[in-house]
Structure formats: structure tokens, C-alpha cells
Amino acid sequence: MITEATLKDTKCYHCGAEIKQTTYTFDEKAFCCAGCESVYQVLSAGNLCDYYAYNSTPGQTQKINEQQYAFLEEEFIIKDLIDYRDNTITKITFYIPSIHCSSCIWLLEHLYKLNQGILHSRIDFLKKQVAVTFKHEEVSLKQVVELMVSVGYEPLISLQDVVKEKHSSVNRDLIKRIAVAGLCMGNVMLFSFPEYFGLSAFEYQYKTLFGYLNLAFAVPATLYCSREFFESAWSGLKNKLINLDAPLALIIAVLFIRTVFEVLTQTGAGFSDTLTGLIFLLLMGRWVKQRSYYHLSFERDYRSYFPVAVSVLKNGSEKVQAVAELNVNDRMLIHNNEITPADAILMKTEAFFDFSFVTGESEPVKKVAGEVVYAGGRLIGAAAELEVIKPVSQSYLTSLWNNETFSKKTIEENFNDTIAKYFSLVSFVIAFAAAGYWLYANDSSKAWAAFTAVLIVACPCVLSLSTPFTLSALLGVFDKNKFYLKNTDVVEKLAKVDTTVFDKTGTITGTSGISLTGELNELDKVYVASVAHNSLHPLSREIVKFLNPNTFLEVRNFEEKPGNGVAGFVNNTEIRLGSHAFVNTSGDYSVDSSVVYVEIDGTYKGYFTVGQQWREGLYGLFYGLRKLTDLHLLSGDTDQDKHTLYHIFPSPDQMLFQQSPHEKLEYIKDLQSQNKHVMMLGDGLNDAGALKQSDLGIAVTDNINNFSPACDAIIKGESMVKLPKFIRLAKKAMLTIKLSFVISASYNLIGVYFAIQGTLSPLTAAVLMPLSTITIITFTSVCTRYFSKQLKLRKA
Amino acid sequence: MGIIYFLIGCSIVIALIFLTAFFWAMRTGQNDDMHTPAMRILFDDDAPKGSEDSK
User: Fold this and answer.
1) Average pLDDT, stretch A105-112?
2) Residue-wise pLDDT tens digits, A447-469
3) Of A47, A106, A125, the CB nearest to B51
4) Nearest by CB: B39 against A105, A113, A127
5) Were A468 and a residue from A200, A288, A293, A631 both cysteine, which residue would form a disulfide, CB within 3.0 to 4.6 Å?
């Protein structure tokens, strides 16, 4: 008892959790659970205790049970997972969500000390990936994974390979093109300087040389670096669409042709400097736009929730089978904490399934024999047999993703593309008018010069720069406020939102809370907890967690009546916990649904209420958003909370309860057909369809590294209060872009003034373009800073 | 002033060498992870105490 008292306030040496219940000590260090203790033992045996030197309590809590890895012995599964294999070594990359500090890097890169078979391991911190090279003759893949689990780093191995998908998203090609464009630009600038300062008679002999050199650099810049503008413009034109790349491609082409013409005929210096500079800046804009979050995935679908393989019973023996090859009538054996990958019938008398992935509901659901368990349920408790009734690809959950509506989603025209159309039209009109005027004046060389110069000068390149720079600055501000957008296009959608749809469970409700009405003394608490401890029912487990006693006492004559309650004797005291019918409540009755009444030795003591709590600042969020958008609420739950919500939700008649995932999707579609821009906030997989259908789907989560369904943005629960500000800032950003367009147009007008006279010198063009670019970039960054400070989204 | 042809040639060759070096660095993935090496450099070398069996 003494040790218990002294250790009561200490923290776990491994994970830093408060130690309350039972104590585990090793090497005079205290641990919160057997899991943390065993991680420490493994590390101390391997002389790796430096792990604890870099950060205090660097570990993750090990209270969660581990998965089974038997499937990693099957050759057909290994083949899909590994990156490379030869006669002796194998290379594999794992995604480990729990990587979070420098100790993690240190430990995972010293894995070779724990097992001789591991040659090398290297971490990519931001991507939370570790690449391991090992000798497969000495250590199997399964052993490698189990070793990592034993030190507290469980790799995530799922049907959708997160690692490989991220590999392909790295855009090395663009960076290469930027490098080439930069090289061309730098050299062309050097060779153009003599021309700018005026050549003396002596230097005139080099004029041709410089001209040809500039041309030589302009060729790769045009043909290699700016290929994507031509491709994008061409594919737009094929679909009868003028996008922003069309005028850009046209200008690049005109600049190049005129440069070639002037250099070859020796009539001028050409526009190589403007051309290469333009290409370089445009590519930089592309790069800024493509900046994305390595550590977040916005494209997850059901496959990333599902395991790669599952145990199947065949002729009485257990066999591992790939999930994709599951057939109807197969008998699956699901172990504790494993996910059911297909819709199946439960063959065991009863089992609890945690559907939090699917519904966002944190409380496990009880299923009895013969009931259908939908794919996505995580089994809690002893292993259970299930018979598959639908293959994975046709399960209830999967059907949400394969919904045909998604494939038809139209590409919305953004502001830039709309402007590009008018811009191109106007510059063509001016160009033809100028050419026509000079032809009329019988000066055909001036007509050609004016025509090309107008097109060159009227370049909307600023647009293709101001947008990515403004929006990516905005992304940075959002990022600091824990609101993560998939890409810059989402900001534009955010600015347009006029309707908000909330999902109830998990979105506007936070973690579940439990409260006690009535009084229990310390001894009573231990008694109640001891009885509840014997039950697997989720409510009982909540009560044990809530009471958190130091010890559990022995319970005799324990009985559990499903659907009613539990009873038992502790120290000859009878404890009864359960429903209104099971416990003599002496007339007390609560209207809430999840209530457990307590009776001790025939005396009614009170009741526990288990329910979900509203997120903080919800009221402010609703009223902040109401000024900007129309509010709707969809809930998969019963309408038990309707009463409370009625008071805080601004538009009570737009609340709908007991909505199935498909009904939610239809509701969104219905709103969209009324020409509304719908923003949907949800969290569970049951919202996945609605999130995808909406114009802007935001996944609300309390841990950004957790699973979240496919969406346009991820927001941390605590930042949801700031959503009205985010929308305001997005609107301001769009205004900034429009203003910057006005500024660049005025620069263009100065250029056009020279151009139509046919007197545009290469120098004017070369000065005007960077000047307008610098003005615009300064303007946009100052604006975003100012606006985000104004809305208090950035610290001064 | 004929030397200028030689100098220009040299400068272009050097520029191309740097470009090739950059391409090589890109291809071998040296720029893929800009964050972890900065943390890795702060680790001490393995402490000698009781780790005779290492390597």
C-alpha cells in the first residue's frame, strides 16, 4: 500500500501517462502498464536507453492491444509490400503514425542493435515513414514488424498502400524544369547585359554571338521547360475551354518565334531574356501551388481502413487469405482488435464491435449470432467467427465510394480561367487592331512588330503568380491554426461557401463524458467498480474508467443479464447496476438514454449518465457561421438530443435525425441542385459520401494523424470555432487576387502603349515584366499578412 | 579579345556541370527529405559504456 501511495502521482517513464491503477516498476522506474514496461525492457536489454535522453517520456502509450501479424508470412502478401529484394536483402518502407519526436528517429534508426538481421533503417520524419533494409535469411518480415511493435512503433499496413501512393506524388520533374529554366534565365541575362548598356563599335562583333547564345538557351527553356503549358492549353482547347494556360502558351510561342526570327535575320536582339524569365517565374508559381502536406492524406478511402489479409477457416484449419480474394460463404476468424473487412454474419453468440471508423460513434455496438456485421467494425473481446455474405468490393461501406455520382463531378471553372478568357479576347482584339492600323498605313514590318508586341505585353502571367502566392500564404496561416487544406483551389471554394451542413456525432460533439447523479463514498465506488469490472458491456467499462479505483475486490455470485444489468456480492454487500427495470430506483427516472442506476444492499444510490458532450465554443461557431452561411444539421443518431440542440442551433427546422449515409448524400445533392455551394463538416466514414459530394468537405478530427475520410480539408476539433474567421479570410484573399489583377492590368496598359506603336524594345519588356511581378508578390503578401492579423489568425 | 570565346565556353560548361550535379542529387533523392537530417545531426555518437558488442 505504501508504494502505491508514493507512486500515485508519478508519471509513466515511457509514455508520460499518469499512473493510477496498478503499478509496474522495473529498474526503479515506474510504468503505467505492462506494455510500456516491456518496451523499456526491450530497450534496456539492447542498450538503447538513450532513447529516453533526448526527450522525456517519448513513448506512446502501449495500452492498446496489438494486432496479429501472421499474414506477413504469406509470400503473396510480402511481394506486394516490399520495395526491393535480391538474394540476401529486402528493402521495405513502413508508414508509422506514432513517429513524433527525435527520440523516435534515434530509436528506429538503431533497430540494427536489437536484431542482427536488420542492416539499416532510415526515417523520413515529415512523412512518418521508415525504410528498413534487412537480411531476409536471418530475420523475417514478420519478425521485423513484431520487433517494431515491441518497441512501441506499430507500422500501419493496410489495403491501400499509403507509402507507395505518396512516392508517386513527389514532383521531381517540375523541380528539374525549374532548374533548367533558372540556368537558361541566368545565362541569358548575362549575355543580354551588353545589349542593355549599349554596344560600343568595338563590341559590335559579338552581337551576333550573343544573339545566337541567347537563342540557344531559349530553345530548351521553350521546348523542355514550358511543355506543360502547351499540353494543358491544348487539352483545354480540345474540350473547347480556354484556361489560363492558353494565353500563356500563346505568349511563349509568340516570344519564341519572334526571337528566332530576329536572331536569324539579324534584325534585332530578340526577347530571350523576357521569355526565359517568364518561364522561370511561371514554373515557380506552379511549384508554390503544388506544395502539399506530406504528413496528411486527403485521398484515403475504405481501403486504408482495412487490413491486407484476414484469417479464414478452411476444413477446420486457420489459413491466411488476402482480403481482396474473400468469397461469399468464407468463414473468417476475426481476432480481438481486428477489423471486419466484408459484410458478414456473426456466428458466435455475441460480440462487441467498435464502429467508430464508420459512424464516428465511440461506443461499441453489441451484435448477436445471426446478425449482419457491416464491414469496418473492429472486434472487441474474444475472437469470433463470421461468414462472409458479400465480397469486399460490394459491401455496404464500399458502395458509398463507388457511388456513380462521384465520377460525374464537373470541373468548376475558377476565377483565373474565367479571367483568362476575357483577357485573351481583349489582347487579340488590340493586337489585330494595331496590326490592321499599321497595314493600313502600309508599314508591314511595324504591323508584325506591333502585333507580336501586344501579345507579349498583355501577358496574364501575373495572374498565374498572384493566385498561387496569395493562396499558399493563406494555407500557411490556416496551417498554423490547425486547419489543413488539400490544395490552393480549396481556398476559392471556401470563399464561395453559402451553406454549411453539420454532422452531429463526433463533429459537434466531442469526447464522451460520464457523470454521476447521487453520492457514493470511496468504499461504494470500489464496490461498484469491482462489479462493473467483471462485465464487458461498454457502459460498464466507462464506469470503471470513470471511477478509476486503486484496487478491485473479489466479486461473488456475479450475474449479467444482457440488456438489463449486472449484479454481484462484494464483502457480503449486494451491488446491482443496470436499467430502470433491473434496479429498484424508488421512482427516480432519467430521460436520458444511456443511464446506469446503482443499488447497494437494497438502497438506491443514484445513477451514472453516459453521454456525449458538446464541443466547446459551439454556440459561438453556430452564430458566427450563421452570418455567413445557411446552417443545416444531419445526424445518424436518434433525436434524443433534439431538445438541447433546439436551443443552440440557429435554424432548428433544418435539423434532420436518423439519416443513413446515403440519405446524407442525397440531402447534399438536393442542396446543390438549388445552386448552393455546400460545405460539409463530418468525421466518420458514414459521412464519407456526403463529404465527397459536397463542394467543400471538411473532416473534423481530434488527432490529425488519425484516419479521416476522403475530403478537401482536415480541421482539428479545437479550431472549428475559428471557421467563420477562416471563411472571412478566404474571401479577403479572393479580393486581394482581384486587386492584384487590376494592378497588373495597369502595367500591361503601359506596355500596350509602346506595343501598338511598334516601338517596344526588348529592354522595356524585360524591365516591365519583373517589375510587375515584384509589385504583385509584395502586394499580395502584405495583404495576406494584414488581413490575417486583422482577424487575429496570426500573431503579431 | 578572342579570349572571350574561351571564357564563355568555360562558363557554360561549368553551369552544365552544376546542372548535372543537381539532377543527380534529385535522382538519388537527396532533396526528398529536408527535415530529418537536421534532427539527426543532433544525436550524440553511441555512448561507449557497456556497448562493447556494438557493430
Assistant:
1) 84
2) 888 888 888 787 777 777 888 88
3) A47
4) A105
5) A288
Contact B33 A213 (CB under 8 A): no
Q: Is A123 on the interface with B (CB under 8 A)?
A: yes
Query: Hey, is the C-beta of A175 within 8 angstroms of any chain B C-beta?
Result: yes
Residue whose C-alpha is closest to residue A507's, from A686, A643, A324: A686
Q: Which is more confident, A635 or A234?
A: A234
Evaluate whether residue A355 is within a structural domain.
yes
> Which CATH number fits the domain that encloses residue A336?
2.70.150.10
Q: What is the pLDDT of residue B16?
A: 95
CA A585 vs. chain centroid, Å, equals 48
Q: Distance between CA atoms of A634 and A429, rounded to whole angstroms?
A: 52
Torsion over CA of A539, A543, A546 and A551, rounded to 10 degrees?
-140
Higher pLDDT, A485 or A400: A485
- Determine, for residues A105 and B36 on separate chains, whether the beta-carbon distance falls below 8 Å: yes
B43–A102 CB contact, under 8 Å: yes
Query: Average pLDDT for residues A604-619, to the nearest whole number?
Result: 75
The verdict on a CB contact (< 8 Å) between A206 and B12 is no
Q: Looking at the structure, do residues A355 and A388 belong to the same domain, yes or no? A: yes
Q: How many angstroms separate the CA of residue A221 from the nearest CA in chain B?
A: 14
Q: What is the ipTM of this complex?
A: 0.83
How far is residue A140 from each of residues A90, A117, A193, measured CA to CA in Å? 10, 9, 64
Write down the mean pLDDT value for chain A.
79
A125–B33 CB contact, under 8 Å: yes
Q: What is the pTM of this model?
A: 0.73
Question: Cell 447523479, residue?
Answer: A517
Q: What is the pLDDT of residues B6-55, one digit of tens each?
A: 999 999 999 999 999 999 998 887 877 778 888 888 877 665 544 444 33
Average pLDDT over residues A15-29: 70
Same domain for A548 and A602, yes or no, is yes
Q: How far apart are CA A193 and CA A610, in angstroms?
A: 77
* pLDDT per residue as tens digits for the range A294-348: 556 666 666 666 777 788 887 777 777 777 778 888 888 887 777 888 888 888 7
Q: Name residue A447's amino acid.
A: A
Which among A101, A38, A104, A41 is positioned nearest to A65, based on CA atoms? Answer: A38
The residue out of A576, A595, A613 marking a domain boundary is A613
Q: Which three cell numbers stand for residue A498?
A: 453559402
Structurally, chain A folds into a number of domains equal to 4
- How big is the CA angle at A583 (ends A577 and A587), to the nearest 5 degrees? 130
3-state secondary structure A532-577: HHCCCCHHHHHHHHHHCCCCCCCCEEEEEECCCEEEEEECCEEEEE
Cβ contact (<8 Å) for A179 and B47? no
Full domain range(s) for residue A326: 302-402
**Which CATH number characterizes residue A558's domain?**
3.40.1110.10
